[in-house]
Amino acid sequence: MKLEGKRLIWQEYQKEIADDHYFYARSCIRQTFFPGAEAVFIKILKDELGKDIHDNKHHTSCTGIGYHSDVVPFDTTMTVIARQFALMTEAGYENYAASCITSFGLYTEVLETWNHFPETEAKIREYLFKATGREFNKPKNLAHASDIIYKFRHQIAAKGKFKLVDKDTGKPLKVVEHIGCHYSKMFPHKGIGGAEYPYVLSGMIEAWGGEVIDYPERRHCCGFGFRQYVVQANRGFSLSCSKKKFDSMEPYEPDMIITNCPGCPMFLDRWQYALSEMEGKTYGKNNHGIPVFTYEEVAGLIMGYDPWEIGLQVHQVSAEPVLDKIGIPYDPAQKFKGKNGKNLGMPESPSNLKFYAD
Amino acid sequence: MQDVRFFEGLKACINCGTCTAICPAAEFYNYDPRVIATTVQSQDDEKILELMSSDTIWYCGECMSCKTRCPRGNAPGLLIIALRSLSQDMGLFTKSEKGRQQLAVKRTIGDQILSTGYCVHPGSVDPDMHPEQGPVWEWELKNIDPLMKKLGANFNGDGPGALRKISQDDLDELKKIFEITGGQERYDKIEAFSKEKSIEMGMEFGTDTKSEYFKHVYTANNQKHNHR
Fold it and tell me: Which of the residues A24, A47, A61 would you substitute to probe the B interface, choosing the one with the greatest number of B C-beta atoms within 10 Å?
């Protein structure tokens, strides 16, 4: 399909994204593996864009991974989500911003379920009140945090110091965008651009000067599969899905991968390491792999934040090839140091997937 | 069959197989979501019971790609969620290798939700159980306090922030929700049915992730699940 056709399709799937005053719900996986990304999101919204965002200490996991690996029943998940809505209501907010894609998908599913089955909503309200004494309003606006960065992508580009452009040739970087399945596969109208041609990350890449790669397995799952990763015996499923994607994108020589789901960047990063150890296969140039980023990290790089302050050192695949290509300055000696240059030792070097300095 | 997911997930399947064509699990496992829809639609109790006792229902990754493409707007993935719920309530999950893994999911993700308030937490991603996480993750765990500080997290701290300690009051509310809504009952059933199975298999059951039965269900793979 020609690019113009895709643009027409995504234009059919637009969604309203609140302009300000967000209740932020953190993601279990993003906090664990990319805590710097959530810090960047808040910093950009508060300090760069002057927005009001509430970081609530009482909210918990939505239980999403438990729900989708089937140990947590739907009524329980719906009531935990109702509690998150109660915390939003009590804090005086109406716009819910989820960091997690699994959560975002579940919030959407729960609101749709209540819409179709009002008696279910009434039952959950009773459960919540009985368990906690809390009551809630449903959010007026529900967005994934990537929707919000998408909304302000042009302001970020205008304020930013860097673009996704090769400093030597002036050509755009070639970028793979990977959308978390639960962003819009279940409810296409709740995602920017729908499910087949989601535009949420493509819009950011274009606004920031990069070129989006269209490759055959673009929409394939990263392979998390919940129980298919959680249980060791099943991880071949997870690994195979990521491998299928890497093999499909490899001929297009991507400079980087950007993701909006918290789990996908971890899998696409770690499975490159696992494949390199298991089969000796590495992707990208010079056995360095294809660097994988969250959209918040990329926004942070555009803004000129220090790569080691936003957490790029906790990626297994080195980010440096992208930093060098764009011309983002960094101090290699500080990569594995703590605050104020404290020595934290070095990770072991993998057998095949090289660290950039190797 | 009162589960809302049966109403939302199945409206006169026309057996076109589009779900199977798009399904990542169908490509990896000997699995066909179209057959799931057909079997549920048949309302043949015997066949449905057989399905709930088999490995088959545990192959789906719940990515929900099937929902996007189905011309009828159905979602075999939603049917799977409903079938897995019933399989656990009835104790049928222990009859298959893949089903027995639910104890491992319960004792990792499940227990962690109630003890920490998180589905996943750095302390839970043990390099021994997750060798694929690689050397950077191992280094990160060794230096977790200074690194989290550098990256702006509030690791195990009070107040808001990434990886903050979730207060006992908040955990108590979560526990109460689980008790009232059937979450605790689901956990208890998984434990009880798994214990019966462990006795039948002559394995030490235990209460944590170190027991013989846990290790068995976490790692066992008879290599009969994939396409040949």
Answer: A61
In the sheet that A22-25 helps form, which strands lie side by side, from edge to edge? A53-55, A22-25, A95-98, A141-144
Q: Is A356 on the interface with B (CB under 8 A)?
A: no
**Are residues B154 and B85 located together in one domain of the fold?**
no
Among residues A124, A119, A80, which one has the least CA distance to residue B178? Answer: A80
Q: Domain containing B206: what range?
A: 99-219
Q: Using pLDDT thresholds of 50, 70 and 90, give the confidence band for residue A357.
A: confident
CATH number at residue B81: 1.10.1060.10
Tell me the average pLDDT across A320-326.
Answer: 98
Q: Does A66 touch chain B (CB under 8 A)?
A: yes
CB B194 within 8 A of CB B100: yes
Instruction: State the pLDDT at residue A1.
Output: 47
**How high is the pLDDT of residue A10?**
62
CA gap A192, A197 in Å, rounded:
9
Exposed / middle / buried, residue B38 (Cβ in 10 Å: 0-12, 13-18, 19+): middle
One domain for residues B24 and B123: no
Chain A (269-328) residues lying within 8 Å, Cβ to Cβ, of chain B: 270-271, 273-274, 308-311, 313-316
Check whether residue B86 and residue B108 sit in a common domain.
no
User: What pLDDT, in 10s, does the model give residues B120-171?
Assistant: 999 999 999 999 999 999 999 999 999 999 999 999 999 999 999 999 999 9
User: What is the set of domains in chain A, with CATH numbers?
Assistant: 16-145 (1.20.1050.140), 146-341 (3.40.50.11810)
**Which A residues, 111 through 150, put their C-beta within 8 Å of a C-beta on chain B?**
113, 116-117, 120, 127-128, 130-132
pLDDT by residue (tens digit) across B1-12? Answer: 567 776 666 878
Give yes or no: residues B163 and B58 share one domain: no
Q: Which of A90, A95, A125 is nearest to A110 (CA)?
A: A125
End position of a domain, from candidates B47, B65, B90: B90
Residues A129-169: tens digit of each pLDDT: 999 999 999 999 999 999 999 999 999 999 999 999 999 99
> Which chain B residue shows the shortest CA-CA distance from A314?
B136
What number is the ipTM of this complex?
Answer: 0.96
Asked if residue B183 and residue B110 are part of one domain, the reply reads yes
